[in-house]
Amino acid sequence: MRYGIALGRMHPGMFVEAAVAADELGFESLWFPEHLVLPVEMAGSPFAGADHPPVPPSTPVYDVFAYLGFLAGRTSQIRLGTHVYNLALRHPFVSARAIQTVDVVSGGRLEVGVGAGWLEAEWVAAGLDFASRGPRLDEALAVCRRLWTESTVEHHGTFFDFGAVMFEPKPVQSPHPPVIIGGESPAALRRAAGHDGWIGLSHTPDSVRVAVTALNDHRRANGRHGTRFTVTVGGTVADDGDVEAFADAGVDRLIVSPWARTRDVIDGLTGFARRFLA
Within 13 Å of residue 82, how many CA atoms lie on the same side as its CB? Predict the structure, then answer.
């Protein structure tokens, strides 16, 4: 089992200290939350059955790739992930360049978690059609993949249209950093099956089995069974039995938050490492 930590579960003032500690303690990855903007009036939630956003509009928000580039310079081994980046709100030139840059400066440690987005008000504020978010994300990802892997790229699509361009240098990771799709909806699971992994919300071993079964079905149907694919979810583990249960359910990486308050983050990480990373 690989273990990541959730930076979104602590005060931003702890991001650097927590990242450095997690790197030194042997955690595999850290995961950075992302929004472009949080409108004052907003509704909805990424959590099934919830009616209200899980964060207030006053929540501190940072440019995810600028911050991850900074954390890359403060760490040496830990992988740097987005959980999740709303790629479709940007032009793919902007996203592809930011992702390429962090992958280069980190020495190939980037994990690109992306989602179609759940916050309609954010799309309205950006002047984009929320209803088109799925197809727009698919096209933006296709453009990014081509920019990362092809010498010359020309594209004429529904949302993006441009003549021949070149995009150098390529990312360190080959063919490109892992693209991991976030979301719990059937559409998100179908999309994830065509990429390098899926990243979900908090789960138990029982709840995640439903998603893993659907992912495996989609991957077999797409002829992608056996290709690289990582299942990542948030979860709580108290003992080795919990770890085994998640692994048996098909989980490859757990994002953990072994602290109750920000001031307990370092002690929580240290205790967890002694128990599960030794």
Answer: 30
Instruction: Write out the two tokens for 132.
Output: 């088109």
Q: What is the pLDDT of residue 202?
A: 95
Report CA dihedral (133, 138, 141, 142) to the nearest 10 degrees. Answer: -150
Token look-up 């980046």 returns 85
Q: Cα-flanking dihedrals φ and ψ of residue 64, to 5°? A: -65, -40
Omega cis (within 30) before 104: no
Q: Positive or negative, the Cα torsion across 75, 78, 84, 88?
A: positive
Residue 273 to residue 278: CA distance in whole angstroms? 6
From CA 159, how far away is CA 145, in angstroms rounded? 16
CB 27 within 8 A of CB 3: yes
What is the token pair recorded at 203? 């789960």
The number of CA neighbours under 13 Å toward the Cβ of 32 is 31
Write the single-letter amino acid at 96.
A
pLDDT digits (tens, 9 = 90+) for 127-140: 999 999 999 999 99
At 51 the pLDDT is: 74
Pick out the chain residues at pLDDT < 70: none
**Angle separating helix axes 205-221 and 186-193, nearest 10 degrees:** 50
Q: Which residues contact 1 (CB under 8 A, 6 or more apart)?
A: 243, 246, 247, 251, 252, 253, 254, 276
Q: Give dist(CA 86, CA 65) in Å, integer.
A: 12
CA quadruple 53, 135, 224, 199: dihedral, nearest 10: -10
Q: What are the tokens at 189?
A: 């699971």
pTM for the full model?
0.96
Give the C-alpha separation, 50 to 225, whole Å.
33
Q: How does pLDDT run across 86-116, given as a tens digit for each residue?
A: 999 999 999 999 999 999 999 999 999 999 9
